[in-house]
């Protein structure tokens, strides 16, 4: 990585260790690399070898010696080859899946050479070159996050989720929809930036946390992006594909469902029209001729004014299968997004519920989609809010491939200006027991393909990077990209382990700054929620902009995003008996829990129920007092972060200290604005004062 910004290397090795004892402790393991593989210059195996060699040189200041000879399966030995010989034979015989790796470190005192010195070794074996690459990055994480010397280790890992995908929302004019980190690293002035080293470096970052697929353009496909599948741009797409392919990442494109019309070749996009079917078959053949490793299409159809099969009286299975049939001979996938709802709702209509939409549109189509169609379902039923229940559609279609979609870009969670570490939120979604196939039918089990006989499954997420020097606008927002990859690889990882690992890699192992940053990250989602989104209410943001408070910003709009606050209470009644019936989309036990005012979790109370301000929560507080208290607590927490960060000035580089301080100060102002606007709004609605007599403006 070539940029000078302290944050450009992100969590990859960037600085020589300052502790000479640490360097000496690791030196026996890191002086020598012996690679045994069929090396392809543009393959993941070569990338693995390069990453290890470069990483070791950066951390220790000394390049390791390197020997290479042919061998299969791909293996890298570090340290003493003589001490490693027995373990090497054992690991070479170990059966491993393609993306898996095995890592064994021998560092016990009995491993000595003929001079009586310790003979440490590490053996890294991949199920394929991709597995070797993932193992190389895992070894670098281990080396750089552990301040001690080598320890005996015997580890074999496979990714839990087959598909681990990043969706870019980049436009060819250089903008990024819902981008909070500068412009696109892929496009400028309607051309692909093939000369940019940032694309290669981004591929490295993604591979380092196990990402294996990427879609490189916005799901809202405009006129210029539609041209990415034309002969004029496919050679450039091929070069992008080759760059990501070197790091084991398969390239996808978002496509315009109406591309035959948009490109001026047909006057219809009807999926049952034979001319349309033949057009897509020819187009897909052209794409694969130019880009042999192409992954397939991501499609947003009949959503937020995008074209789709509804125009022709067809359904989503008809639309998705059109593309799937064209892709199937080439092994391609259709990632069909389920974010479909009425975006022209009449706010006066209390019976229409946006939360119901995805389930209502798709559930009855189960079994009608081709085997290479994958439904991409947002983690919640609305739109990446601070707090939502898990989408009831996920797992409810046992004969249809599904992935869960998260949003790393903090559209409604601070826009990478306010700190909001989203891994705990994602963990809550992944750990949710749908009960659709009995107890233990969790989202993470479904996504991993362990519940239903899916041929394709996993997780996807909307990227948060741009061309800012530190990639994500806020240095600490890098933790969300890192955390998504780590959680996609292994959803059993705990949030605190991920926060601590990222902080150690980024701010130094076992340093005061790393310890504080890990603590701050883990507090940040509850804190952000505490001053923005009470008890499951969302959308109290400035329309379209989605940052800063506007309690009624969407209350009388067409978007179906209401809190229904009146003089007596607030919340949306989604119960079976008196509301929209949304709770009925869940398995019986979850339905009954959400339907019950007594059993519904407080953090989702106002998502499912309209209650009086005087309703008493399980905490013993009334709803209105909880609103007051949590606004003050959230704003106060940010000020405590600022005070502690100031104390650490001498322990962190000036660039990141100043940047993070500036962001925290901005977050403090935002939190106070939220506090005062929300508290005042609900005081004026309810007429009930704060029992602690703090300042609430009348």
Q: What key attributes describe this structure?
A:
single chain, 698 residues, alpha/beta, Chitobiase, domain 2, TIM Barrel, Alpha-d-glucuronidase, C-terminal Domain, 3 domains, six-stranded mixed β-sheet, globular
Q: What report would you give on this structure?
A:
- The chain is α/β, with parallel strands linked by helices and 698 residues long.
- It folds into three domains: 20-157, Chitobiase/beta-hexosaminidase domain 2-like (Chitobiase, domain 2); 164-493, Glycosidases (TIM Barrel, Alpha-Beta Barrel); 532-572 and 610-686, Alpha-d-glucuronidase, C-terminal Domain (Alpha-Beta Complex).
- Helix content is 36%, strand content 12%.
- The protein has 20 helices and 18 strands.
- The protein has helices at residues 20-30, 44-60, 81-92, 129-145, 197-208, 223-226, 234-245, 259-262, 274-290, 316-327, 357-362, 423-431, 443-447, 478-489, 495-507, 512-532, 588-595, 605-608, 623-647, 654-686; strands spanning 32-36, 65-69, 75-79, 101-106, 121-126, 153-157, 163-167, 187-188, 191-192, 213-215, 250-254, 296-299, 333-337, 373-378, 401-407, 457-462, 569-570, 611-612.
- Strands 7-10-11-12-13-14-15-16 form an eight-stranded parallel beta barrel.
- Strand 12, helix 10 (316-327) and strand 13 form a beta-alpha-beta unit.
- It is globular, with a radius of gyration of 26 Å.
């Amino acid at each position: 990585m070539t940029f000078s910004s302290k944050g450009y290397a992100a969590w990859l090795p960037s600085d020589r260790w300052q502790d000479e004892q640490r360097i000496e402790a690791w030196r026996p393991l890191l002086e020598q690399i012996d690679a045994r593989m069929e090396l392809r210059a543009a393959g993941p195996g070569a990338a693995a070898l390069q990453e290890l060699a470069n990483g070791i040189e950066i951390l220790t200041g000394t390049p390791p010696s390197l020997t290479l000879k042919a061998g299969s399966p791909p293996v890298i030995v570090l340290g003493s080859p003589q001490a490693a010989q027995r373990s090497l034979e054992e690991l070479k015989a170990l059966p491993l899946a393609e993306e898996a790796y095995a890592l064994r470190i021998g560092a016990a005192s009995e491993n000595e050479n003929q001079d009586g010195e310790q003979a440490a070794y590490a053996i890294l074996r991949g199920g394929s070159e991709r597995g070797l690459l993932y193992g190389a990055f895992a070894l670098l994480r281990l080396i750089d996050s552990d301040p001690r010397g080598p320890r005996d280790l015997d580890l074999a890992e496979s990714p839990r989720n087959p598909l681990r995908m990043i969706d870019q929302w980049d436009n060819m004019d250089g903008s990024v929809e819902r981008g909070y980190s500068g412009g696109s690293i892929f496009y400028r002035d309607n051309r692909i930036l093939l000369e940019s080293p940032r694309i290669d470096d981004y591929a490295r970052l993604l591979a380092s946390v196990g990402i294996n697929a990427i879609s490189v353009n916005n799901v809202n496909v405009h006129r210029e992006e539609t041209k990415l599948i034309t002969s004029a741009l496919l050679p450039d797409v091929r070069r992008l594909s080759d760059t990501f392919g070197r790091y084991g990442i398969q390239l996808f494109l978002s496509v315009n469902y109406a591309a035959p019309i948009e490109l001026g070749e047909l006057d219809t996009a009807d999926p049952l029209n034979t001319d349309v079917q033949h057009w897509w078959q020819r187009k897909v053949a052209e794409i694969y001729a130019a880009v042999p490793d192409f992954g397939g299409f991501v499609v947003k159809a009949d959503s937020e004014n995008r074209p789709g099969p509804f125009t022709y009286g067809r359904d989503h299975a008809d639309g998705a299968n059109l593309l799937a049939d064209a892709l199937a001979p080439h092994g391609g996938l259709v990632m069909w997004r389920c974010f479909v709802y009425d975006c022209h709702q009449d706010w006066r209509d209390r019976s229409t519920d946006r939360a119901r939409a995805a389930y209502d549109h798709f559930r009855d189509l189960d079994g009608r989609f081709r085997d290479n169609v994958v439904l991409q379902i947002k983690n919640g039923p609305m739109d990446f809010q601070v707090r939502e229940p898990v989408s009831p559609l996920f797992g409810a279609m046992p004969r249809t491939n599904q992935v869960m979609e998260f949003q790393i870009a903090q559209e409604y969670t601070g826009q990478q200006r306010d700190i909001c570490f989203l891994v705990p939120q994602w963990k809550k979604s992944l750990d949710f027991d749908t009960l659709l196939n009995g107890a233990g039918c969790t989202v993470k089990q479904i996504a991993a393909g362990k519940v239903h006989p899916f041929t394709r499954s996993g997780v996807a997420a909307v990227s948060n990077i741009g061309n800012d020097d530190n990639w994500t606008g806020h240095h600490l927002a890098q933790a969300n990209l890192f955390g998504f990859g780590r959680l996609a690889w292994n959803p059993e990882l705990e949030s605190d382990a991920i926060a601590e690992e990222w902080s150690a890699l980024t701010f130094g192992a076992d340093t005061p700054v790393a310890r504080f940053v890990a603590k701050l990250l883990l507090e940040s989602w509850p804190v952000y929620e505490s001053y923005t989104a009470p008890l499951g209410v969302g959308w109290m943001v400035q329309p379209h902009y989605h940052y800063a408070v506007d309690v009624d910003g969407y209350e009388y709009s067409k978007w179906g995003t209401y809190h229904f606050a009146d003089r007596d209470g607030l919340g949306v009644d989604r119960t079976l008996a008196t509301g929209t019936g949304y709770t009925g989309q869940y398995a019986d036990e979850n339905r009954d829990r959400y339907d019950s005012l007594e059993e519904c979790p407080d953090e989702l109370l106002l998502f499912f129920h309209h209650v009086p301000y005087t309703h008493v929560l399980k905490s013993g507080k009334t709803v209105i007092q909880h609103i007051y208290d949590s606004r003050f607590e959230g704003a106060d927490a940010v000020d405590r972060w600022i005070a502690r960060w100031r104390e650490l000035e001498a322990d962190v580089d000036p660039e990141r200290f100043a940047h993070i301080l500036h962001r925290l100060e901005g977050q403090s102002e935002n939190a106070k604005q939220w506090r005062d606007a929300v508290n005042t709004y609900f005081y004026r609605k309810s007429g009930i004062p704060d029992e602690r007599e703090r300042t609430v403006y009348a």
